[in-house]
Design goal:
The complex is a heterodimer of chains A (383) and B (202). Chain A is of the alpha/beta class. Helices cover 34% and strands 17% of the residues of chain A. Chain A has 14 helices and 12 strands. In chain A, helix 1 packs across helix 2, helix 9 packs antiparallel against helix 10 and helix 10 runs parallel beside helix 12. Chain A starts with 6 loop residues before the first helix and ends with a helix. Chain B has 202 residues and is of the alpha+beta class. Chain B has one domain. Chain B has a 5-stranded antiparallel sheet, with helices on both faces. The chains are: A alpha/beta (383), B alpha+beta (202). The interface between A and B is medium-sized, with 26 and 30 residues. Strand 2 of chain A pairs antiparallel with strand 1 of chain B.
């Protein structure tokens, strides 16, 4: 089972082990959510000691519900795994959003909506960071806290006083006692008092963010420097492997004018996507690229040519929407990215100059959605 | 209730609770039972030794709701433990709330999963065939994410080399093969987070 973990997963585990806090970033569609999910799975399974995984593994889709957990044979995984000696491993998950609050993440008070006679009007709640920390403090416990969309909420406010305490060298010692560098912060305890609190050694935090998303909160430098970065880039290799157009099935040289096989459509799609990303990088910045994931949904090797055309038309509708969002209000930017300014004659899209009230105006002529009948021409023209 | 269920990706097992299924239990699922040995006509799966199992049952059925019940001729309010069962048949994630009722004065050592015939995860066609040397167990698996997954399993599969996690297979086989009174069914648990376990009075 463990041999299926990717190189990215192993590298993130390695950084978690060393730095405790890792921030995965990259353009949309580069596999951030998939990666943090994979790291969570690897962390929870842990390492065999000796010969089997730390805990039995439940797999509802297997022939029996708790099959043997295979011992990892990958020495890189053995080397990368955080706190391999801890056997009670648990993953906690949360997603930040515009309304995320410190009380939802650490501890705080909320109205007691289930109040019975004699009970207080407010109750203390414990958030994901506090729960993960408490689990990691328990006997043989280790926690991985996964925070998706960390910059979609006010992260600095949500962390509050915990911001310094998350640093690797500001944690409690391995025996659970404070060191000279342990950083304490205030938490609202279950009794309603403000207590000094510090985070344990075996609490690991993995966050993900999309830097280019326009609706996100900015993260300040002081916050960011407490995280080990791990950047995912768009990958043509991943795409070609997914489409099955690498190795002996690769398409080299110029594409034919008419696609006769699915692999021509896939290769045209990859080349066009590479060009779009190159133009987006120049026009708006590399963080605004679109990841390979946008082209992978609903597409697999072994498709017929017609199925490949249909699936590509669907993918490219999403990709075009991304370009329009990135260059919102800049029609020439959109057209340039799609190579529709003086593009080849078979391009379904063309930027044309016109006028309005004696002023020059531009119009992107062509179908609002390019169907399977024209998508191959469009891909060749864009690429 | 398909849809927003727990993810089905492999996840660590926090604890297991198991109980032997007997032909009377099967009749309860198909809503045909009326024999007193298996708890009369009630459509329940009964768990003896409730006192020994209560802590783990509370973890698997973590919510408490108060409901009215008739006890010794009087209406009283009793605490019912409520949880959620998750299952994945044929690739579809589904879940449904389930109640566990504590013992009554008539059967003071037995707790019960109630209304089993209304649980799609207990579909009769999912229960392996009983036979000599092939007991069938209801295995409740609580994962590290807190979700509880019921499975019907057969003794024969536990002896199949390499099929099961060896710790789980040993746990279940040791209990199946252990000594117990002739009128007792196999019942026990193992908490992998604390190491605690129980099997038929031991």
């Amino acid at each position: 089972m463990t041999n299926e973990f990717t190189k990215d997963c192993i590298e993130v585990l390695e950084r978690l082990r060393a730095a405790k806090n890792v921030l995965v970033s990259g353009p949309p569609g580069t596999g951030k959510s998939r990666l943090i999910g994979e790291v969570g799975k690897a962390f929870e399974i842990g390492l065999p000691a000796p010969g089997v995984a730390a805990m039995p593994i439940h797999n509802p889709k297997a022939k029996v519900p708790i099959p043997p957990a295979a011992a990892p044979s990958d020495p890189a995984l053995v080397k990368a795994m955080p706190c391999p000696g801890k056997t009670v491993r648990k993953v906690f998950r949360t997603v930040f959003h515009q309304n995320s609050k410190h009380r939802d993440f650490v501890t705080g008070m909320i109205p007691n909506t289930q109040r019975k006679a004699g009970e207080p009007d407010f109750v203390i709640i414990e958030g994901a960071l506090f729960k993960a920390s408490e689990h990691a403090k328990s006997r043989n416990g280790a926690s991985l806290l996964i925070i998706d969309e960390i910059n979609r909420g006010p992260a600095v406010q949500v962390f509050g006083g915990a911001i310094v305490a998350i640093e690797a060298d500001k944690r409690l010692g391995s025996d659970g006692t404070p060191t000279s560098e342990t950083q304490f912060f205030d938490v609202l305890s279950r009794s309603g008092n403000l207590d000094s609190y510090a985070l344990p050694e075996d609490l690991y935090i993995l966050a993900a963010m999309n830097q280019a998303d326009a609706s996100v909160e900015p993260l300040d430098v002081a916050f960011l420097r407490r995280w080990e970065p791990y950047v995912l880039d768009p990958s043509s290799e991943v795409l070609r492997t997914h489409f099955g157009i690498n190795g002996s099935n690769a398409v080299s040289g110029a594409l034919p004018e008419i696609a006769t096989e699915a692999k021509h459509v896939f290769e045209a799609s990859v080349r066009a996507w590479e060009k779009v990303n190159r133009r987006v990088s120049l026009g708006r910045g590399p963080e605004f690229q679109i990841g390979h994931g946008v082209l992978m949904s609903g597409i697999s090797g072994g498709m017929t040519k017609d199925a490949a055309l249909q699936a590509s038309a669907n993918s490219w509708a999403k990709l075009r929407a991304h370009v329009q969002e990135v260059f919102f209000g800049d029609l020439r930017g959109i057209a340039a990215t799609l190579n529709a300014i003086d593009g080849p004659s078979f391009h379904p899209l063309q930027l044309v100059e016109t006028s309005f009230a004696d002023d020059i105006r531009y119009e992107l002529m062509g179908p609002s959605r390019i169907g399977p009948d024209r998508i191959y021409d469009a891909l060749r023209a864009i690429g | 209730m398909p849809g927003s269920s727990a993810a089905t990706s492999p996840t660590g097992v926090a604890r297991i609770l198991y109980k032997e299924i007997v032909p009377g239990d099967l009749r309860k699922i198909v809503a045909e039972s009326n024999d007193s040995d298996t708890g009369g006509g009630a459509r329940d799966f009964r768990f003896g030794e409730f006192g020994k199992l209560e802590a783990i049952i509370r973890k698997m059925f973590p919510h408490t709701v108060r409901e009215k019940r008739r006890r010794e001729g009087r209406n009283v309010e009793v605490d019912i433990f409520r949880g959620t069962f998750h299952w994945n048949f044929d690739g579809v994630d589904e879940h449904k709330d389930v109640d566990f009722e504590p013992p009554t004065s008539a059967r003071p050592s037995e707790g019960r999963i109630t209304r089993v015939h209304e649980q799609p995860c207990f579909a009769p066609n999912r229960i392996p065939k009983f036979g000599e040397g092939n007991k069938v167990l209801l295995l409740l698996v609580q994962r590290n994410d807190g979700t509880v997954w019921p499975h019907f399993i057969e003794e024969r599969s536990l002896t199949n080399p390499g099929a099961w996690d060896p710790r789980v297979a040993k746990e279940l086989l040791d209990c199946i093969r252990g000594e117990r009174a002739v009128n007792k069914v196999v019942i026990g648990y193992r908490d992998f987070t604390s190491g605690e376990g129980y099997c038929n009075d031991k």
